[in-house]
Structures are given as C-alpha cells and as structure tokens.
Amino acid sequence: xxxxxxxxxxxxxxxxxxxxxxxxxxxxxxxxxxxxxxxxxxxxxxxxxxxxxxxxxxxxxxxxxxxxxxxxxxxxxxxxxxxxxxxxxxxxxxxxxxxxxxxxxxxxxxxxxxxxxxxxxxxxxxxxxxxxxxxxxxxxxxxxxxxxxxxxxxxxxxxxxxxxxxxxxxxxxxxxxxxxxxxxxxxxxxxxxxxxxxxxxxxxxxxxxxxxxxxxxxxxxxxxxxxxxxxxxxxxxxxxxxxxxxxxxxxxxxxxxxxxxxxxxxxxxxxxxxxxxxxxxxxxxxxxxxxxxxxxxxxxxxxxxxxxxxxxxxxxxxxxxxxxxxxxxxxxxxxxxxxxxxxxxxxxxxxxx
Length: 353
Ligand code: COI
Description:
- The protein has 353 residues and is an alpha+beta fold.
- It folds into two domains: 4-165, 2-Layer Sandwich (D-amino Acid Aminotransferase, Chain A, domain 1); 174-339, Alpha-Beta Barrel (D-amino Acid Aminotransferase, Chain A, domain 2).
- It has helices at 59-63, 86-96, 107-121, 196-211, 257-267, 280-289, 326-339; strands at 4-5, 29-36, 40-48, 66-68, 71-75, 81-84, 132-141, 154-163, 174-179, 216-220, 228-231, 234-240, 243-246, 272-275, 292-299, 303-312, 315-318, 350-352.
- Strands 1, 2, 3, 4, 5, 6, 7, 8 and 18 form a nine-stranded mixed β-sheet that branches. A six-stranded mixed beta barrel has the order 9-10-11-12-15-16, surrounded by four helices.
- Residues 70, 233-234, 299-302 line the site of 2-OXO-4-methylpentanoic acid (COI).
C-alpha cells in the first residue's frame, strides 16, 4: 500500500516559535486511512489539513468509539528529525483498538504511515529550544448507524501540532487536588487504553479543581478511593526514602510511554524502583515521617511534572517545600536531552526520519 500525497497549494504562515503553547497550531497536511470490512485498511493519503466529511450518525459522535495516541518529533542540533519511541506508541494503539471493538492498524503499517507523513511535514518540526512537533494519530468510527454496536467503518488520521515546552517558564511544581468524588476509570473499564472517553470522564473534576485554584487532580481507585492511580493526564511517581514507587499497570491505568522511560532510567540512579500499590494514607504518613521526598507525573506532553502540593477537604501536604526535586529534575533533563540528541540514545528510543 503506497501513500498518495496531495500537497497544499496554500501553505500556512509559520507561528512564532517562542509562543507555540500546546495544540494551538496545526501543520499544512494530515494523513488519512479508511477501513471497511471487505477491504480492510486502505487508501492512505496525505492531503491538505482540513475538515473531515462526516455522517452525523457516525458512531464516534454517539457511542464514543475514538482512540488516539500522542507522540513527538524533535529536531536535533544537526538539523535532523527524530521521533521519540515510535514503536511503543504504535504498539499501544494496536493494543487499545480491540478494547473499543475497533480494527487494529498493524504497528508496522502505523509506523510506515507516520514516517510517510513526517517526510512531508518535517520542515514543521520547530527549532527553538524546548519545542517539538506533537503528532496525534487518531481512530474514529465513521459508519452512519444508530443501533448500538461496533461501527463497520473507521477513519484513521494523523494531524500534527508544533508545540512549545509544556511549562514556558521552565519546569514548575503543580498544585493537585485529591479527587474523592469523581473517578477517571474503574476496574474493567477503559482506563488502560487511550480512549477519548477517558478524557471526557476527567474534565469535570479537572475544571472544578481549577476553580478551587489547583492545576489538576490526583485520581484514586473507583471502588474505595484510597489507592493512588494517576495524576491529571499522567502516570504518577512518588519517591519514598530511596524507593521510587509507581502504581502497577492495571485496567484503570494507562501504560505511559514516559512512565516506561522513567522506570528504565531511575534504575540507573541507584534507586529501588517499585511498581506496587500506593495508598493515599501511605503518602500522608510518609509526608509526616519525612520519608516523602518527591511526587511527580510523567507524560508525553510535559515529560515530567513535579507536584508541589496535594490538598483535599480538610487537609493538605507540601512536597519538597513546593520545589522541583532532584530526581524529577534529573529525569526531565535526561529524557529531554535524549529526545534532542544531546545525549547518546543508548536505549534505542529514537527513529530518524
Ligand atoms: C500526556 O501527558 O501526554 C497526555 O496524555 C496529555 C495529552 C492528552 C495532551
């Protein structure tokens, strides 16, 4: 299957690289691929970025069959472009599709489509320090049919957005509300896959936390609300003494690609690295005893996001005096340097365009 390329005749003006923000600008082109049962995935093409023609009865609008990925391309000092952990993102989307009764885009096909797309769009990878091109591969149900069952037709597409460093003024600790009313994901639900629905489920708690003056929420388990699961849209890590703890993967926790980077790198820092359950009471007790050194989130968008404060109705705790901890800082620097070719890629995380 070869990808047809229709170039735009009206290229966009490039946004200023010192004010990109996150997800505000989009490149000149998008890649689309269609699915229907007889032909399977077919018709890959790169076309000018623009609206998708959609049947208003399409499954994505009514029953939420939508799955996505998020990965980044970085410009190295020598001007070349690298994708970060391309194969892990392709594999994760392939694992997620069956949970939503969606057809799998084979990782080898997704990989080659991303590379086809990047060959057209690579000039859009920004050059300024801290910037990158964020790619958003997405799959949606497009069959127009209102019966509740899996759609027979799908569109897979890739769009891309030049983005700045998530924290414009450098990495800053966030203030987190411990969410005890709403849950992001429950046992047996969709939490382990990058379904749009998980983000829909998170919005109300996040916006209420913002109204209260917090940046994001700490998600607890849906049943007893006592086990720590994720923070905002990220996986969570806590440094307790010299043990770096993250909750084990389950069907309510996303297998973060940056989470996996942290697990690999932290082992080389002389820390005990544990994937084990972490109760909110263990966090509060270790805060009292002085064992709680750092808390941070990990994700593609922000890389590492230190937590400076956790608050709940009737209490709060401060982490590392509200400052960036040494382990969070070191992980941020090291991952960012590998992404930009400033450190050797000893783990094989980069794919050159
Ligand atoms: C990430 O941390 O990369 C996320 O999952 C956020 C993204 C959905 C914008």
